[in-house]
Amino acid sequence: MAIPPIIEAPDPRLKQIAQSVEKVDAELARLMDDMLETMYKAPGIGLAAPQIGVAKRVIVVDLANEEEDEPRRPLRMANPEILWASETTRVHNEGCLSLPEQFADVERPTKIKVRYLDHENQVREMEAEDLLATVIQHEMDHLEGVLFVDRVSKLKRGILMRRLLKARKGKAAPDAQAWS
Fold first, then answer.
1. Range of the domain at 56
2. What's the pTM?
3. Which of 68, 101, 107, 139 is catalytic?
4. CATH number at residue 57
5. Which of 28, 47, 173, 176 has the largest count of CB atoms under 10 Å?
């Protein structure tokens, strides 16, 4: 399987709205599997197709913790849509593979009901709560060109983006010195 690279903010592809897919065929199922491999390698618990430069409405999620020897339970979702969201909310300290090592508290509905096409092109509905609901909503935001930093104050967003760029420059400097 191919492991596509994860693009990082402020790449403009992360702000594009993803396009719906007509059906989950063999090619799209392969994309979902490749996304899972990328997510596991990162490591992460969710990934949206726009994060690998593919502007399609596809997300993958797996909350399994390999360090605790939990079996993998991947969710592959095409065209996910929230049918219902609870009025109760929870705050979770979110991070993102496209904003490495940056975290912020984000408030989202505690429970959701979502409809999607699975990796076999079957329409599914499921209810999710707590962390699973948060991760699905976070990944669905990517399909609309929204990053978790877009859900915090302008001041906090500026701080996080400056930290990200500073960290990126800091990582580039040692490599550049090694080649000189």
1. 12-169
2. 0.90
3. 139
4. 3.90.45.10
5. 47
